[in-house]
Amino acid sequence: MRGISTQAYNANTPILDIKTGRAYEESGRLYTAKDIGFPGRPCSWMQNGFMAVNTTMKAGRVFLWSLYEQYADWGVDFVKHDCVFGDDLDLDEIKTVSSILRIRRQDILYSVSPGTSVTPAMAKNVTELVDMYRISGNVWDLSGDVAAAFDVARNFAAANMIGSEGLRGKSWADLDMLPLGWLGYPGSQQGPYRNSNLNPDGQRSQMTLWAITKSPLMFGGDVRNLDDATHNLLTNPMLLEMNSFSTNNKEFPYATVDGRIRLWIATGRSGEVYVAFFNLNPQMVKVSAQLSDLAKTLPGRSFNSCYQV
After folding, report:
1. pTM value?
2. CATH number of 77-246
């Protein structure tokens, strides 16, 4: 989460100096949470829970270092740093945490969120600092949430943001979790107790879009109660191959369609070409595309035949 907890701030807890194991001291002064916290910059969706820290102060950086040292001691290998991106953008804190992880060379994947109001221009400020970054609001098992991802993914692909330079080689635009299988409801205090509201076609559409746009595949359901259909979709070899190794991923602009149709195209590592057709209408529609149009999208390639998978 962003910065420091409100509980620590209100209690004015000392800042740990991991080098000495005692409270952080500088020039004879002991520093505490109230020295580094910004109560006027709370997390927008948890305003009573967390606030930003002053990273221009060494004490603020010492606090963040101690926090990520604790994560490493616990064996944490993935951190989702929330309330620092999108509408909550705190570039200074992202830079500080990224620097800590780079210096420590700890094998911790670094993800930032939320993705509300994120644009390619904003994301370009963080791609080299992180491993992945959210580009959407919260995605739940609603057809409208999945449909909204198409424009977002198109914009980031058009800006050449899929697989940009990142903290460890590449950074990836994250469309959020896959709300498949056995779920709860947003904000519910109960454990998972219902099936996904997306029908089989909707689930297949979401998984295919996430795969061909190379979004990180984060499963949001209960792995303890994984039905065969969900398991088969999540482990589909072609989708995982496409998500891991495809290139030239982009929305396909050439097609003859009836209704709201979205199309994506990508190149496989063995020279194969993936084309995905998505029907966002409630009824069936006819879609057609010419091999010559595929060549326009991927010039220099030869298209002699097509196979449906």
Report:
1. 0.91
2. 3.20.20.70
Is residue 167 within 8 Å of residue 130, measured between CB atoms? yes
For residue 50 the two structure tokens come to: 């967390």
Say if CB 277 and CB 201 are below 8 A apart: no
**3-state class (DSSP) for residue 96:** helix
Tell which residue, 76, 85, 64, 82, has the closest CA to residue 106: 76
Q: What angle do CA 294, 296, 297 make, to 5 degrees?
A: 70
DSSP code for 57: S
Domain extents for the chain?
77-246
- Is residue 114 reached through a cis peptide bond, with omega within 30 degrees of 0 on the bond before it? yes
How many angstroms separate the CA atoms of 270 and 241, rounded?
11
Q: pLDDT tens digit string along 184-235?
A: 987 777 888 899 999 999 999 999 999 999 999 999 999 999 999 999 999 9
**Residue 41 vs residues 2, 47, 242: alpha-carbon distances, Å:** 10, 9, 41
Degrees, nearest 5: CA angle 301-163-221? 110
Q: How far apart are CA 97 and CA 110, in angstroms?
A: 9
- Whether residue 246 contacts residue 265, with contact meaning beta carbons closer than 8 Å, is answered with no
Q: Which tens digit of pLDDT belongs to each residue from 126-150?
A: 999 999 999 999 999 999 999 999 9
Number of H helices, E strands in the chain: 10, 19
Q: What is the DSSP string of 152-185?
A: HHHHHHHTT-TTEEETBEEEEEE---B--SEE--
